[in-house]
Amino acid sequence: MSSTIISETEQWVRGKLSHDTSGHDWYHIERVTTLARYLCKDTQADEKTVILASLLHDLADDKLIDDEEVGRQMIATWLRDKHVSKEIIDHILLIISTMSFKGGTGSPMETLEGQIVQDADRLDALGAIGIARTFTYSGHKQQPMYDPSLPTREDMSVEEYRHGQSSAIHHFYEKLLKLPALMNTPKGMALAEERAQYMKSFLQQFYSEWTFKK
Ligand code: ADP
Ligand code: NI
């Protein structure tokens, strides 16, 4: 596989996601790819598979496309046209399908390449960037930034939240603060812990401003 395929894929994905405002813009893809390259270093993982799966991972997401199967077909056609082997195409599609399962109900990521891309995507949902993306997404969905009448407990399940209205702050509890425990790689876990810690201090400051009394 030649490395021109990486730059051609970058251009293709950049063109497709340049107008996105739901938190899946090109810069998300670029950050995930950079994180995945970092997690891939000094491992046995196939770097090209990691990079291509990172670049392509959101093109079949149902937040961006009506039919995920159509998205997967489009990715397969693109890679086939670039003469990527069937084995690598199948692997990339498996990574993307496994990543798109919602609520942690999907099958675990089996391959090291998939574990790296999944960790990289999760890391971009954490830290300062993760906070910014959550508020952007909530605005896009017309959810409030916070609703103090909703409970916020880290041990609440996604299902408990699904019954009611959510908010940006509630997304921290329903998903984001649970991510460090789900990380696959040691380097990913260390970064996730650091980024989650930053989010917890953000929450403390947020509540102290929310309940301000002179
Ligand atoms: P990714 O593209 O990284 O897999 P998602 O598609 O799950 O992430 O979500 C994109 C961004 O929007 C993430 O930063 C995520 O935390 C945020 N997000 C997803 N669902 C919600 C929600 N219900 N409320 C607020 N933010 C959300
Ligand atoms: Ni993503």
TrEMBL record:
Superkingdom in the source lineage: Bacteria
One Pfam family in the UniProt entry: HD
InterPro entries in UniProt: HD/PDEase_dom, HD_domain
Domain HD residues, every copy: 25-126
Annotated protein name in UniProt: HD domain-containing protein
